[in-house]
Amino acid sequence: MIRIDDYNVGMKQIDVNLASLDLNLITALDALLRLHSVSGAAEAVGRTQSAMSHSLARLRDHFRDPILVRDGWAMHPTPLAEQLRPRVAEAARAARLVFETKTVFDPATTRRRIRIASPDLCASLFTSFIAELSRDAPNGSIEFVAAESARQAVLNSDADIGLGFGHPKSDPNLLLCEIGPLEWCTFAPRGHPFCKDASQARWAASQHIVVGQSGAREGPVEKALRRNRLKRRVVCHVANFSSALSLAAETQALFTTLRAPFERSATRLGMAACAVPFPMPSAPAALMFRADYGDPFSIWVRERCLRSFD
User: Fold this and answer.
1) Is the pTM of the predicted complex or chain greater than 0.70?
2) Which of 44, 65, 75, 87 has the fewest CB atoms within 10 Å, counting from its CB?
3) CATH of 4-100, one of 1.10.10.10, 3.30.70.20, 2.40.50.100, 3.40.50.620
4) Which fold has domain 184-274?
Protein backbone atom coordinates (compact mmCIF):
# COMPACT_ATOMS: atom_id res chain seq x y z
CA MET A 1 0.00 0.00 0.00
CA ILE A 2 1.27 3.53 -0.80
CA ARG A 3 2.20 5.54 2.29
CA ILE A 4 0.33 8.86 2.15
CA ASP A 5 2.96 10.62 4.24
CA ASP A 6 5.48 10.00 1.46
CA TYR A 7 3.79 12.87 -0.44
CA ASN A 8 3.62 16.58 0.18
CA VAL A 9 0.01 17.07 1.20
CA GLY A 10 0.15 20.85 1.71
CA MET A 11 -1.97 23.12 -0.51
CA LYS A 12 0.54 25.20 -2.46
CA GLN A 13 -0.39 27.95 -4.91
CA ILE A 14 1.59 27.56 -8.14
CA ASP A 15 1.42 29.31 -11.48
CA VAL A 16 -0.43 27.11 -13.94
CA ASN A 17 -0.63 27.60 -17.68
CA LEU A 18 -4.21 26.51 -18.41
CA ALA A 19 -3.47 26.32 -22.12
CA SER A 20 -1.08 23.46 -21.39
CA LEU A 21 -3.69 21.45 -19.49
CA ASP A 22 -6.53 19.26 -20.67
CA LEU A 23 -9.54 20.76 -18.93
CA ASN A 24 -11.35 17.44 -19.30
CA LEU A 25 -9.26 16.50 -16.27
CA ILE A 26 -11.62 18.61 -14.13
CA THR A 27 -14.59 16.36 -14.92
CA ALA A 28 -12.42 13.27 -14.47
CA LEU A 29 -11.15 14.47 -11.09
CA ASP A 30 -14.64 15.43 -9.96
CA ALA A 31 -15.95 11.95 -10.77
CA LEU A 32 -12.97 10.24 -9.09
CA LEU A 33 -13.39 12.27 -5.89
CA ARG A 34 -17.14 11.59 -5.77
CA LEU A 35 -17.05 7.88 -6.53
CA HIS A 36 -13.60 6.74 -5.28
CA SER A 37 -13.51 4.31 -8.20
CA VAL A 38 -11.76 4.40 -11.55
CA SER A 39 -14.36 2.19 -13.22
CA GLY A 40 -17.26 4.07 -11.62
CA ALA A 41 -15.82 7.45 -12.66
CA ALA A 42 -15.27 6.21 -16.21
CA GLU A 43 -18.90 5.08 -16.48
CA ALA A 44 -20.17 8.35 -14.99
CA VAL A 45 -18.45 10.53 -17.61
CA GLY A 46 -18.84 8.13 -20.54
CA ARG A 47 -15.21 7.12 -20.91
CA THR A 48 -13.36 3.82 -20.95
CA GLN A 49 -11.68 2.55 -17.80
CA SER A 50 -8.26 2.75 -19.46
CA ALA A 51 -8.88 6.39 -20.42
CA MET A 52 -9.87 7.21 -16.84
CA SER A 53 -6.78 5.41 -15.53
CA HIS A 54 -4.69 7.55 -17.88
CA SER A 55 -6.40 10.71 -16.56
CA LEU A 56 -5.70 9.66 -12.99
CA ALA A 57 -2.03 9.14 -13.85
CA ARG A 58 -1.85 12.65 -15.33
CA LEU A 59 -3.55 14.11 -12.24
CA ARG A 60 -1.10 12.32 -9.95
CA ASP A 61 1.80 13.67 -11.98
CA HIS A 62 0.44 17.21 -11.92
CA PHE A 63 -0.34 17.35 -8.18
CA ARG A 64 2.60 15.16 -7.12
CA ASP A 65 0.04 13.22 -5.10
CA PRO A 66 -1.64 9.81 -5.56
CA ILE A 67 -5.14 11.42 -5.24
CA LEU A 68 -6.66 7.98 -4.54
CA VAL A 69 -4.89 5.18 -2.68
CA ARG A 70 -5.98 1.55 -2.46
CA ASP A 71 -6.69 -0.06 0.88
CA GLY A 72 -7.76 -3.63 0.24
CA TRP A 73 -10.67 -3.54 -2.21
CA ALA A 74 -11.48 0.10 -1.63
CA MET A 75 -9.83 3.34 -2.74
CA HIS A 76 -9.62 6.35 -0.46
CA PRO A 77 -8.83 10.02 -1.22
CA THR A 78 -5.60 11.46 0.11
CA PRO A 79 -5.68 14.49 2.40
CA LEU A 80 -4.80 16.70 -0.57
CA ALA A 81 -7.68 15.19 -2.54
CA GLU A 82 -10.06 15.92 0.33
CA GLN A 83 -8.92 19.54 0.32
CA LEU A 84 -9.36 19.70 -3.46
CA ARG A 85 -12.88 18.20 -3.42
CA PRO A 86 -14.96 21.43 -2.91
CA ARG A 87 -12.89 23.39 -5.41
CA VAL A 88 -13.14 20.67 -8.03
CA ALA A 89 -16.90 20.27 -7.53
CA GLU A 90 -17.38 24.02 -7.97
CA ALA A 91 -15.15 24.11 -11.06
CA ALA A 92 -17.06 21.21 -12.65
CA ARG A 93 -20.40 22.89 -11.89
CA ALA A 94 -19.19 26.19 -13.35
CA ALA A 95 -17.98 24.43 -16.51
CA ARG A 96 -21.36 22.74 -16.96
CA LEU A 97 -23.12 26.08 -16.59
CA VAL A 98 -20.87 27.62 -19.27
CA PHE A 99 -21.62 24.93 -21.82
CA GLU A 100 -25.31 24.64 -20.96
CA THR A 101 -25.77 28.31 -21.85
CA LYS A 102 -27.43 28.77 -25.23
CA THR A 103 -28.26 31.81 -27.30
CA VAL A 104 -31.99 32.31 -27.59
CA PHE A 105 -33.20 33.00 -31.12
CA ASP A 106 -36.82 33.83 -31.85
CA PRO A 107 -37.66 34.10 -35.58
CA ALA A 108 -40.86 35.97 -34.75
CA THR A 109 -38.92 38.91 -33.29
CA THR A 110 -35.72 38.94 -35.36
CA ARG A 111 -35.03 41.89 -37.61
CA ARG A 112 -32.08 40.26 -39.31
CA ARG A 113 -31.62 40.58 -43.06
CA ILE A 114 -30.82 37.35 -44.88
CA ARG A 115 -28.44 37.92 -47.78
CA ILE A 116 -28.55 35.64 -50.82
CA ALA A 117 -25.92 35.50 -53.56
CA SER A 118 -27.55 33.93 -56.60
CA PRO A 119 -27.54 34.36 -60.38
CA ASP A 120 -30.42 36.54 -61.56
CA LEU A 121 -32.17 33.69 -63.35
CA CYS A 122 -32.38 31.65 -60.10
CA ALA A 123 -33.84 34.31 -57.80
CA SER A 124 -37.35 32.89 -58.26
CA LEU A 125 -36.20 29.53 -56.85
CA PHE A 126 -36.33 31.20 -53.44
CA THR A 127 -40.02 32.10 -53.58
CA SER A 128 -41.02 29.34 -51.13
CA PHE A 129 -38.24 30.40 -48.77
CA ILE A 130 -39.41 34.03 -48.94
CA ALA A 131 -42.97 32.91 -48.18
CA GLU A 132 -41.76 30.95 -45.13
CA LEU A 133 -39.78 33.96 -43.93
CA SER A 134 -42.83 36.22 -44.28
CA ARG A 135 -44.81 33.83 -42.11
CA ASP A 136 -42.24 32.83 -39.46
CA ALA A 137 -40.08 35.96 -39.31
CA PRO A 138 -42.37 38.87 -40.30
CA ASN A 139 -39.85 41.47 -39.15
CA GLY A 140 -36.96 39.96 -41.10
CA SER A 141 -36.09 40.60 -44.73
CA ILE A 142 -34.18 39.16 -47.67
CA GLU A 143 -31.62 40.91 -49.84
CA PHE A 144 -30.21 39.52 -53.06
CA VAL A 145 -26.61 40.70 -53.17
CA ALA A 146 -24.56 41.20 -56.31
CA ALA A 147 -21.58 38.87 -56.47
CA GLU A 148 -19.43 37.49 -59.27
CA SER A 149 -19.05 34.29 -57.26
CA ALA A 150 -21.72 33.02 -54.86
CA ARG A 151 -19.11 30.72 -53.35
CA GLN A 152 -16.75 33.59 -52.57
CA ALA A 153 -19.58 35.74 -51.23
CA VAL A 154 -20.45 33.05 -48.69
CA LEU A 155 -16.81 32.42 -47.75
CA ASN A 156 -16.30 36.18 -47.25
CA SER A 157 -19.49 36.36 -45.14
CA ASP A 158 -21.01 38.77 -47.67
CA ALA A 159 -23.94 36.36 -48.06
CA ASP A 160 -25.71 33.91 -45.74
CA ILE A 161 -26.83 31.70 -48.65
CA GLY A 162 -25.20 31.12 -52.01
CA LEU A 163 -26.49 29.37 -55.11
CA GLY A 164 -24.01 28.44 -57.80
CA PHE A 165 -23.78 26.27 -60.89
CA GLY A 166 -21.38 23.45 -61.54
CA HIS A 167 -19.84 21.05 -59.04
CA PRO A 168 -18.22 23.29 -56.41
CA LYS A 169 -14.97 22.10 -54.87
CA SER A 170 -15.22 20.78 -51.34
CA ASP A 171 -14.15 23.20 -48.65
CA PRO A 172 -14.12 22.63 -44.86
CA ASN A 173 -15.66 26.08 -44.43
CA LEU A 174 -18.59 25.35 -46.77
CA LEU A 175 -21.68 23.20 -46.48
CA LEU A 176 -22.75 22.20 -50.01
CA CYS A 177 -26.24 20.89 -50.84
CA GLU A 178 -26.95 19.91 -54.44
CA ILE A 179 -30.36 20.95 -55.78
CA GLY A 180 -29.88 20.07 -59.42
CA PRO A 181 -29.32 19.27 -62.07
CA LEU A 182 -31.68 21.85 -63.57
CA GLU A 183 -33.13 21.12 -67.00
CA TRP A 184 -33.54 23.43 -69.99
CA CYS A 185 -36.73 24.20 -71.90
CA THR A 186 -38.12 26.67 -74.42
CA PHE A 187 -41.03 28.80 -73.21
CA ALA A 188 -43.51 29.65 -75.94
CA PRO A 189 -46.84 31.53 -75.86
CA ARG A 190 -49.71 29.04 -75.98
CA GLY A 191 -50.89 28.69 -79.56
CA HIS A 192 -47.42 29.41 -80.94
CA PRO A 193 -46.59 27.16 -83.93
CA PHE A 194 -43.62 25.75 -82.00
CA CYS A 195 -46.00 24.25 -79.42
CA LYS A 196 -47.43 22.02 -82.15
CA ASP A 197 -44.24 21.43 -84.11
CA ALA A 198 -41.32 21.40 -81.66
CA SER A 199 -38.74 20.68 -84.36
CA GLN A 200 -35.31 22.17 -84.86
CA ALA A 201 -36.47 23.83 -88.07
CA ARG A 202 -39.47 25.48 -86.41
CA TRP A 203 -37.32 26.57 -83.44
CA ALA A 204 -34.67 28.11 -85.72
CA ALA A 205 -37.29 29.88 -87.85
CA SER A 206 -39.01 31.46 -84.83
CA GLN A 207 -38.15 34.77 -83.19
CA HIS A 208 -36.19 34.63 -79.95
CA ILE A 209 -35.54 36.80 -76.93
CA VAL A 210 -32.09 36.54 -75.34
CA VAL A 211 -30.75 37.78 -72.02
CA GLY A 212 -27.51 39.73 -72.28
CA GLN A 213 -25.95 42.19 -74.67
CA SER A 214 -25.28 41.24 -78.26
CA GLY A 215 -21.70 40.15 -78.71
CA ALA A 216 -21.41 39.10 -75.06
CA ARG A 217 -19.59 35.96 -73.97
CA GLU A 218 -21.04 32.82 -75.50
CA GLY A 219 -23.60 31.19 -73.21
CA PRO A 220 -24.75 27.54 -72.91
CA VAL A 221 -27.47 27.89 -75.57
CA GLU A 222 -25.10 29.53 -78.07
CA LYS A 223 -22.55 26.76 -77.48
CA ALA A 224 -25.20 24.09 -78.06
CA LEU A 225 -26.35 25.84 -81.27
CA ARG A 226 -22.79 25.94 -82.55
CA ARG A 227 -22.30 22.23 -81.77
CA ASN A 228 -25.49 21.39 -83.65
CA ARG A 229 -24.76 23.86 -86.49
CA LEU A 230 -27.96 25.79 -85.83
CA LYS A 231 -28.81 29.48 -85.79
CA ARG A 232 -31.71 31.50 -84.39
CA ARG A 233 -33.32 34.85 -85.11
CA VAL A 234 -32.82 37.07 -82.07
CA VAL A 235 -35.25 39.99 -82.10
CA CYS A 236 -34.50 41.38 -78.66
CA HIS A 237 -31.68 41.41 -76.10
CA VAL A 238 -32.79 42.18 -72.53
CA ALA A 239 -30.93 42.89 -69.32
CA ASN A 240 -32.55 40.34 -67.01
CA PHE A 241 -34.46 37.08 -67.09
CA SER A 242 -37.73 38.30 -65.57
CA SER A 243 -38.31 40.86 -68.30
CA ALA A 244 -37.36 38.28 -70.96
CA LEU A 245 -40.22 36.00 -69.92
CA SER A 246 -42.86 38.74 -69.91
CA LEU A 247 -41.64 40.14 -73.24
CA ALA A 248 -41.74 36.69 -74.82
CA ALA A 249 -45.37 36.32 -73.71
CA GLU A 250 -46.30 39.66 -75.29
CA THR A 251 -44.33 39.38 -78.53
CA GLN A 252 -44.90 35.73 -79.51
CA ALA A 253 -41.14 35.12 -79.29
CA LEU A 254 -39.47 32.05 -77.81
CA PHE A 255 -37.37 32.17 -74.67
CA THR A 256 -34.97 29.29 -73.95
CA THR A 257 -33.74 29.02 -70.37
CA LEU A 258 -33.81 26.78 -67.30
CA ARG A 259 -37.24 25.33 -66.58
CA ALA A 260 -37.46 25.33 -62.76
CA PRO A 261 -36.97 29.05 -62.04
CA PHE A 262 -39.65 30.20 -64.50
CA GLU A 263 -42.23 27.45 -64.91
CA ARG A 264 -44.79 28.86 -62.46
CA SER A 265 -44.46 32.40 -63.79
CA ALA A 266 -44.70 31.14 -67.37
CA THR A 267 -47.94 29.32 -66.57
CA ARG A 268 -49.46 32.51 -65.15
CA LEU A 269 -48.41 34.35 -68.33
CA GLY A 270 -50.11 31.77 -70.52
CA MET A 271 -46.91 30.20 -71.80
CA ALA A 272 -46.04 26.55 -72.38
CA ALA A 273 -42.78 24.85 -71.44
CA CYS A 274 -41.55 22.88 -74.46
CA ALA A 275 -38.60 20.56 -74.81
CA VAL A 276 -35.55 22.09 -76.47
CA PRO A 277 -35.25 20.37 -79.88
CA PHE A 278 -31.49 19.82 -79.62
CA PRO A 279 -29.22 18.39 -76.90
CA MET A 280 -28.56 20.70 -73.95
CA PRO A 281 -26.34 19.73 -71.02
CA SER A 282 -28.05 19.74 -67.64
CA ALA A 283 -27.04 22.45 -65.20
CA PRO A 284 -25.85 21.09 -61.84
CA ALA A 285 -26.52 23.56 -59.03
CA ALA A 286 -25.82 23.69 -55.30
CA LEU A 287 -26.74 25.76 -52.27
CA MET A 288 -23.83 26.94 -50.15
CA PHE A 289 -23.64 27.91 -46.47
CA ARG A 290 -20.83 28.62 -44.02
CA ALA A 291 -20.14 25.28 -42.34
CA ASP A 292 -18.47 26.90 -39.34
CA TYR A 293 -21.47 29.10 -38.47
CA GLY A 294 -23.34 27.17 -35.79
CA ASP A 295 -25.24 29.99 -34.11
CA PRO A 296 -29.04 29.61 -33.84
CA PHE A 297 -29.74 32.22 -36.54
CA SER A 298 -27.49 30.53 -39.10
CA ILE A 299 -28.88 27.09 -38.29
CA TRP A 300 -32.45 28.37 -38.63
CA VAL A 301 -31.70 30.02 -42.00
CA ARG A 302 -30.02 26.88 -43.32
CA GLU A 303 -32.83 24.55 -42.22
CA ARG A 304 -35.60 26.80 -43.57
CA CYS A 305 -33.81 27.29 -46.89
CA LEU A 306 -33.14 23.58 -47.43
CA ARG A 307 -36.71 22.70 -46.48
CA SER A 308 -38.05 25.12 -49.09
CA PHE A 309 -36.07 23.27 -51.81
CA ASP A 310 -37.36 19.80 -50.86
Assistant:
1) no
2) 87
3) 1.10.10.10
4) D-Maltodextrin-Binding Protein; domain 2 (3.40.190)
